[in-house]
Amino acid sequence: MTYCVGLLLNAGMVLLSDTRTNAGLDNIATYRKMFHFEDPGERVISITTAGSLSVTQTTLARLREAIDDPDASETTSIMKAPTMLKVASIIGDMLSKVRQEIDEKMATMNQGASASMLVAAQRRGGAMRLFLIYPEGNFIEATEDTPFLQIGEHKYGKPILDRVVKPATSLADAEKAVLLSMDSTLRSNLSVGMPLDLCVIERDACRVSRKRRIEAGDESFRAMSEAWSKALRDGFTQITL
């Protein structure tokens, strides 16, 4: 499994994903789950994935093929689509089509495949958009009332986001929030694991402003995790009934 989280803030967007992929208890591997498509200054589209690796890899490969196609158009290429809503529709349609194809191939084994995606995007002159695309291809969008979206093993990392993240949250605090959200998930679920991929997209930059790969043993991440654990323990001991 995996855990991915995306934040839509006044100052920009923040995405974080893990890289663990399980195919049974004795087959654990590392695969990148965050991907970027950019025309710097014109548009940026960042995608994180959760679920069946065969579905997500095939979907991304076909999206790239559509971009490189000499006959690419506004209806087929996410880099030519006139709006970010259309980008989400193209990705959703492709994800749904790939999932159905793989499901048909696996039907004789009474198995299925599923995947979901977070899509953070902005084009020059347009608003920042953050979508959660479901396996069926339909999607929802982050709003001012709900400025974050999650996919994968999301339940352990949700409480801190509910309490901390608001549209006015700074990008620095947003990074801290998603990393602590991931830290909580790492501690409670073995199907989520290091390394982590973090990206920041500043408002109206239309490019990925910052990327960071956090490896196992990263000193700053370890220090943050220990400080958070201590803060929780201290807070717990101070509460009286």
Task: Explain this structure.
With about 240 residues, this protein is of the alpha+beta class. It has a single domain, classed as Glutamine Phosphoribosylpyrophosphate, subunit 1, domain 1, CATH 3.60.20.10. Helices cover about 35% and strands about 30% of the residues. The chain has five helices and twelve strands. It has helices spanning about 55-70, 85-105, 160-165, 170-190, 220-240; strands at about 5-10, 10-15, 20, 30, 35-40, 45-50, 115-125, 130-135, 140, 150, 195-200, 210-215. Strand 1 and strand 2 form a beta hairpin. The chain is globular. The termini are far apart.
Features:
single chain; alpha+beta; Glutamine Phosphoribosylpyrophosphate, subunit 1, domain 1; 5-stranded antiparallel beta sheet; 12 strands
What is the gist of this entry?
Helices cover 35% and strands 28% of the residues. It is α+β, with helices and mostly antiparallel strands and 241 residues long.
Write the layout of secondary structure elements.
Elements: E1 3-9, E2 12-17, E3 20-22, E4 28-30, E5 34-39, E6 43-51, H1 53-68, H2 84-106, E7 115-123, E8 129-133, E9 139-141, E10 148-152, H3 158-164, H4 171-188, E11 196-202, E12 210-214, H5 219-238
Antiparallel strand pairs: 1-2, 1-10, 2-11, 3-4, 5-6, 6-7, 7-8, 8-9, 11-12
Helix pairs in contact: 1-2, 3-4
> Roughly how many Å apart are the termini?
38 Å
**What is the helix tally?**
5
Beta-strand content: 25-35%
Average pLDDT taken over every residue: 95
Helix content: 25-40%
Q: Point out poorly predicted stretches.
A: none
Per the CATH scheme, the topology name is Glutamine Phosphoribosylpyrophosphate, subunit 1, domain 1
Biggest β-sheet, characterized?
Answer: 5 strands, antiparallel
**What is the CATH first-level class name?**
Alpha Beta
Succession of helices and strands: EEEEEEHHEEEEHHEEH
- How many structural domains? 1
- Superfamily at the CATH H level? Aminohydrolase, N-terminal nucleophile (Ntn) domain
